[in-house]
């Protein structure tokens, strides 16, 4: 690790590219796993299943990794501007690589038009994370931001169950409450904490205006998705459910 991190910091762009290629390898390996028959019957659903499977791997890995970084190094939470550890820097490299790979998958498979809002989200995340990697500032902020991946696990599971036609299953019922809890705890609270930190320290933060604007855009997005989630799972109507199934790739991209 001591020998690897200086190399990553010297060539962050190359490090992100390598991580992106590794997630592409994961994408290929996951295609060997069995897929529900109902998913195989639809090309769009098959792509969604593959895409969400890679996203699930990313969320499981980076969500647990981010929480571990904060538990082991609590200063990560208090000094999001300038504090970081070798493991937190590596985490941001890995996660940036995933977002590059996922954006590429959306564009190259011809799903950009239907997933434009997720591409906007990815562009904001990639830019912010690359800034952190090249300047070695806000690395801790990027780690804290990855708390949202804990919620992404339940979001992805929700959509995988829907693709498999298991909306009436007990697992879906339990997951929708877990999803609601993690959305509020790990997504909304995380985003609002980061926004509060930037506002409180705006006068001295590097490029505070850009990061605040980025956070405001993402806050608006997650509130809209939260409304959609509540409407779909807790205030269900046949018309809104059909519309959401036809128009959404994911409720939120990680």
Automatic annotation (TrEMBL):
Top-level taxonomic group: Eukaryota
A family per Pfam: TRAM_LAG1_CLN8
Listed transmembrane segments: 51-74, 86-104, 180-199, 211-230
GO BP annotation list: membrane assembly; phospholipid homeostasis; plasma membrane organization; regulation of membrane lipid distribution
Signal peptide: none
InterPro entries found in the cross-reference section: TLC-dom, TLCD
Membrane-topology descriptor: Multi-pass membrane protein
GO CC annotations on file: plasma membrane
Localization annotation: Membrane
Residues annotated as domain TLC: 44-238
Alphabetical list of PANTHER family matching this protein: CT120 PROTEIN, TLC DOMAIN-CONTAINING PROTEIN 1
Protein name as catalogued: TLC domain containing 1
UniProt organism field: Dicentrarchus labrax
Record gene name: tlcd1
């Amino acid at each position: 690790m001591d020998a690897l991190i200086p190399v990553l910091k010297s060539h962050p762009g190359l490090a992100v590219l390598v991580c992106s290629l590794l997630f592409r390898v994961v994408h290929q390996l996951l295609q060997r796993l069995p897929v529900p028959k109902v998913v195989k019957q639809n090309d769009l659903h098959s792509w969604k299943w593959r895409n969400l499977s890679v996203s699930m791997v990313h969320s499981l890995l980076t969500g647990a990794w981010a929480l571990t970084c904060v538990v082991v190094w609590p200063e990560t939470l208090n000094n999001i501007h300038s504090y970081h550890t070798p493991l937190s820097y590596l985490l941001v490299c890995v996660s940036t690589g995933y977002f590059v790979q996922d954006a590429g998958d959306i564009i190259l498979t011809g799903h950009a038009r239907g997933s434009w809002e997720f591409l906007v989200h990815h562009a904001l995340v990639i830019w912010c994370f690359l800034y952190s990697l090249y300047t070695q500032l806000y690395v801790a902020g990027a780690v804290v931001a990855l708390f949202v991946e804990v919620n992404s696990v339940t979001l992805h599971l929700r959509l995988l169950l829907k693709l498999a036609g298991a909306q009436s299953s007990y697992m879906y019922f339990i997951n929708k409450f877990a999803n609601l809890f993690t959305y509020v705890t790990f997504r909304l609270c995380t985003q609002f904490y980061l926004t509060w930190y930037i506002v409180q320290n705006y006068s001295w933060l590097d490029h505070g205006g850009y990061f605040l604007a980025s956070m405001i855009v993402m806050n608006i997005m997650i509130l809209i998705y939260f409304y959609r989630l509540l409407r779909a799972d807790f205030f269900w109507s046949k018309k809104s459910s059909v519309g959401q199934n036809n128009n959404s790739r994911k409720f939120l991209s990680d």
